[in-house]
Amino acid sequence: MKFLTTLLLVVMASLSTAFQAPMPTSRAPVMASPTALNVFGNKKSAAAKEAAKAAEAELAAQFWQGEWVCKDCGYIYNRAECAGMFFEEQGPGFRCPQCSGPRRRYAKKVGDRVGTTLDGGDAPILIFSFGGVIATIAFGIWAVENL
After folding, report:
1. Nearest CA among 132, 107, 102, 111 for reference residue 121
2. Residues 35-82: tens digit of each pLDDT
3. pLDDT at residue 25 in the model
């Protein structure tokens, strides 16, 4: 019996490590972008910096300038903490860094008021939940009477 227990533990340990992703050994070296340095290794000129600022301002004008707030925990989206991306640029897999709430749970904040979330609030969840409860009760009544 002790042999089977030991064998089972060894198999479980090997299976638990067999499906894990390998750990990275080191980070890739950071390379300077070709636009950041000119041929002589000097930094960007003032004109290039101004052009970059203008492009950034033009990009910022396309997105909401107010704050995005997680309705679950109150976390205010900080662009600097999220790879410098605007909230609208985040993909559907984005999660709140504080509570891991989905992207659809964020809402626009205007002044001291928070608007509705991207999914329209909790109404769809509540409607389908109550519908499921009613369907379960109806099925239970039908099963008791007919079976």
Report:
1. 107
2. 445 555 556 677 788 888 787 777 777 777 778 888 889 898 988 888
3. 43
The first and second tokens of residue 88, run together, are: 């609208």
Q: Residue 59 to residues 53, 81, 82, 89: CA-CA distances in angstroms?
A: 10, 18, 17, 11
Alpha helices in the chain (DSSP H): 2-18, 46-60, 123-146
Enter the tokens of residue 146.
């007919």
Q: How far is Cα of residue 29 from the mean position of the Cα atoms in its chain?
A: 26
Domains located in the chain, CATH noted: 66-113 (2.20.28.10)
Note the pTM of the prediction, 2 decimals.
0.44
> What tens digit of pLDDT does each residue of 73-97 get?
989 898 888 888 888 888 888 899 8
CA-to-CA distance for 3 and 15, rounded, in angstroms?
18
